[in-house]
Amino acid sequence: MKTYIYNSFCFSAFTGIFVLAAFSTVSGNYCEVNICHNGGTCVTGSGQSAFICVCPDGFTGETCNETETGPCNPNPCKNDGMCEVMVNSRRGDVFSEYVCKCQQGFDGVHCQNNVNDCAGQPCKNGGTCRDLDGDFNCKCPSPYVGKHCQLRCISLLGMEGGGIAESQISASSVYYGILGLQRWGPELARLNNKGLVNAWTSASHDRNPWIEINMQRKMRFTGIITQGASRMGTAEFIKAFKVASSLDGRTYTMYRQEGQPKDMVFVGNVDNDSTKTNLFDPPIVAQFIRIIPVVCRKACTLRMELVGCELNVYLNTTGCSEPLGIKSRLIGDRQLTASSSFRTWGIEAFTWHPHYARLDKQGKTNAWTAATNDRSEWLQVDLERPKRITGIITQGAKDFGNVQFVSAFKVAHSDDGQYWTIVKDEKTKTDKIFPGNSDNNVHKKNVFEPPFYARFVRILPWVWHERITLRMELLGCDE
Ligand SMILES: *[C@@H]1O[C@H](CO)[C@@H](O)[C@H](O)[C@H]1NC(C)=O
Ligand SMILES: *[C@@H]1O[C@H](CO)[C@@H](O)[C@H](O)[C@H]1NC(C)=O
Ligand SMILES: *[C@@H]1O[C@H](CO)[C@@H](O)[C@H](O)[C@H]1NC(C)=O
């Protein structure tokens, strides 16, 4: 990286914008008339410097009146590659004036090649691979899960087998037959249940029937098997139904297929006895799952089984410590938010946005910095779906030569972005304070023991150096 030193300022010039401090004895507002050439932006300086010219790519000098020269100007490296001038040195047999240092996921002399991380076909079982910067992401067809879609999530969850207790099954209403003697209760809604009264039926007056299973912990559901029943020689069954789910029993989400504007309507049964299997693709992660009959034949009568798996298919965290995609950009800009963002010299172009908080990000402004030095500041990651989170890597950054980092922080997580839980110390039961960085560059890894499961994660800076500044990555897995 080429570094220019002017007076007491030290600036790196590789992203193009160039800043100079001008020393002058003239007084007044120097920026009233823009004295910067070639499209430079004038900013009134502070202290000794009367004004600062922020120069566009390719220009330098106090007033942007000089053209940058040298093998690295303009930057011959593509895809954010860093150009380094080689002084009287040689690489192999070839003399070169410069060398490009490529970002992860790119190669070639000029970093012109985006390495295809999907080339080795890492996704098994029909998974669709998406190439990221130095990583890949598999979109797995149900019932496959895992980084490589290598795991099958197809356990029968216990309606038929009895693993799900009666107390875990509830319904909007119950039908009582034969002068109120037969109770077609929700606890009977078990696949292949036998007997004269062997299924759940909603009350005849119930206009919005539903039946709900509380798994008592978060689970992954990949499918549902439904079956009707017969009452007094008549077949009764659910011909079509919708599915809703909830992580907390407060807010429910109707199941939709990805990108579809309408609730998914599943095709159900056609007679009193045969079973119908529907897959949830993508799977549902929830504690509560609710079946909502839409079209019923004679009555809304159901026997059923849920298909899925426990979330902790990995018995230890070693199998679940993939980077969750902050660095590789699987996590998009909108998924990274913060309480505030700092601007160097108040300049818009030098905003330290939350979406810059990506591990190893390069550039002049290459991290998130909070506007104030206050413990109320936070950085938030929305993973869009709940994931198992087993660790975090943090890193500081340099703001025009100033080393800045967070040296201690707390971590909070949430299912809905409203109710937050702060990670506690296992022994003391108080908020855990994680050790952070001690310079602008070294990766500091912390492991969450035990791991937690959440959609939203917040970093709460506790102690910092100069300014609250973070680049980071979360570790975990889908399971
Ligand atoms: C740019 O401006 C500075 C100060 O005004 C002057 O000393 C220098 O000669 C100028 N350079 C060019 C290439 O015009
Ligand atoms: C219910 O299903 C069984 C098995 O398919 C069939 O023999 C029986 O006739 C059906 N009963 C009614 C009432 O449809
Ligand atoms: C943890 O799980 C991984 C993957 O299943 C396995 O390879 C490893 O041996 C396990 N380690 C321990 C300490 O159990």
TrEMBL record:
Molecular function terms, GO-annotated: calcium ion binding; signaling receptor activity
Secretion signal, residue range per the UniProt entry: 1-28
SUPFAM superfamilies linked to this entry: EGF/Laminin, Galactose-binding domain-like
PROSITE patterns named in the record: ASX_HYDROXYL, EGF_1, EGF_2, EGF_3, EGF_CA, FA58C_1, FA58C_2, FA58C_3
Keyword set, alphabetical order: Disulfide bond, EGF-like domain, Signal
All copies of domain F5/8 type C, residue ranges: 153-309, 320-477
Pfam families referenced in this protein's UniProt entry, alphabetically: EGF (PF00008), F5_F8_type_C (PF00754)
Source organism, top-level taxon: Eukaryota
Disulfide linkage: 36-53, 55-64, 102-111, 140-149
Residues annotated as domain EGF-like: 27-65, 68-112, 114-150
A GO CC annotation given for this chain: plasma membrane
Protein name (record): Milk fat globule EGF and factor V/VIII domain containing b isoform X1
Organism encoding this protein: Chanos chanos (Milkfish)
Gene label: mfge8b
